[in-house]
Amino acid sequence: MLKDGRIWVAQTSDGRNISILPGMTNRHGLIAGATGTGKTITLKVLAESFSDMGVPVFLADVKGDLAGMARPGADSPDMQERIKRFGLSEAGFSYHSNPTAFWDIFGKKGMPLRTTVSEMGPLLLTRILDLNEIQSQILSIVFKIADDSSLLLIDTKDLKAMLNYVDENSRQYREQYGNIPAASIAAIMRAVTALELNGGDVFFGEPALNISDWFTVDADGKGMINILDSESLIGDTALYSTFLLWMLSELFETLPEVGDLDKPKMVFFFDEAHLLFKDNQKALLDKIEQVVKLIRSKGVGIFFITQNPGDIPDGVLAQLGNRIEHGLRAYTPSDQKAVKSAAESFRVNPGFDTYETIMNLGTGEAVVSFLDEQGMPEISEKVSILPPQSLMGAIDDEVRQQIIKGSILYSKYENAEDPDSAYELLKRKGIEKARDDEKAANDAADNKKAANANKRAVKSVASTITGTIGRQVGKQVGGQFGSFGKTLGGNLGASLGRGILSTLFKI
């Protein structure tokens, strides 16, 4: 919750409030800890606080329990104990809901969230399709040919049509783009088909998400909390992580440079963040690190949520200035190494042993270190996290649907559209080519028929003429030589005549 212009997150055992400076949240953050240690509660407290100060939020709901932010919290003896312990009543604590928009790439538990194949691009699409390096290069060539040909790739049928087109015309593209093996095209086609069969094609289409629709506040000036339902999506880890990475890239490419602000323009929470970096090509890992480094200047703060900080590459981990470490368990030597690494990332507090403290933290407790006004990490503190003001838990489907259909964006994204794109254009081009080929074939057949008819006519004329002349010559000659001459002249004359005229007509 907000207090004294800061985000009040936790409290020490001696009653000191521990807060995050809003102007430092674009330096990003980390929420880590083993399962059941309180990461979700911490995320909710932060998201509610950002919303209260007018900052839009995006987060993925992996377990379905973040949807409760759309409803006020419920009182209980446990909550009353926490309220009293933290002195929350005096600070203005009250149960309340938050302005919430639900999204779902499958369009079932939220407004449909779509993008286009072109906007996704070959690099991220390679990850979704699980292509090897050569296939990835071929896919990039296909995208380049589509761009050079002004062909829009909206959905998967556009991509498949483009793959077939490139395959059929690979010879004409060889000189400009290099060899395009049919086997690689076939492999990509199979991967796209598999994506369609698994239902992963539904988020490719129009209307695509306009990222500016996330930068909204309600009538009270509270930032919208955009929740992506990920209960089904998380089953396909590559699809889940790639889609979230695409959204982050969209923010980076769309927003202008703003430098350091008093508060961020938006905060992006990456739950199950370790999936982002699992089995990734170096090119994509470099892209992620670049976006994390540079998006700060766009006014966007990113919080990565994961079980073990070691799951995040050092280049990204170094950019996370605000850290909340819940309990970690060290059952194996590798676990002990991970805890030691996490402990060493905090500034030493002489009041406690960070390593031992992290291993013995209870649910709702954490070791924290936030950035001060100069952007320097503060000394680590052992704290208890505040409770959220919204409902802890899921909501029923009826309430969810009411919220979805009540959104001002519902009518904009409800129905899918299928505009003219590569599939339609290539289909028309194929029909036109087929018509041209058919016409050419018919014309050739007509020409051949006419030529044959002319040939037959010439032969007929020639035969008639030679026969007549030959017989006339024969009669004249035969008349001069008697009956023998008639016989000779009739046959020989006709034969001679045909021979002469055959030469003249070249038949």
Structure description:
By secondary structure, this protein is an alpha/beta fold. It folds into two domains: 2-114 and 206-413, P-loop containing nucleotide triphosphate hydrolases (Rossmann fold, 3-Layer(aba) Sandwich), CATH 3.40.50.300; 117-200, no CATH class. The chain has 15 helices and 13 strands. It has helices at 39-52, 77-86, 117-129, 133-148, 156-168, 170-177, 182-197, 237-254, 282-294, 314-317, 333-344, 354-359, 397-405, 410-413, 422-505, and strands at residues 2-3, 6-12, 17-20, 29-32, 57-61, 100-104, 111-112, 225-229, 266-270, 300-306, 322-325, 365-369, 381-385. Strands 1, 2, 3, 4, 5, 6, 7, 8, 9, 10, 11, 12 and 13 form a 13-stranded mixed β-sheet that branches. Helix 9 links the parallel strand 9 (266-270) and strand 10 (300-306). Helix 3 packs antiparallel against helix 4, helix 3 (117-129) packs antiparallel against helix 8 and helix 5 runs antiparallel to helix 7 (182-197). The longest helix has 84 residues, at 422-505. It is elongated, with a radius of gyration of 39 Å. The chain starts with a strand and ends with a helix. The model is unreliable at 464-507 (pLDDT under 50).
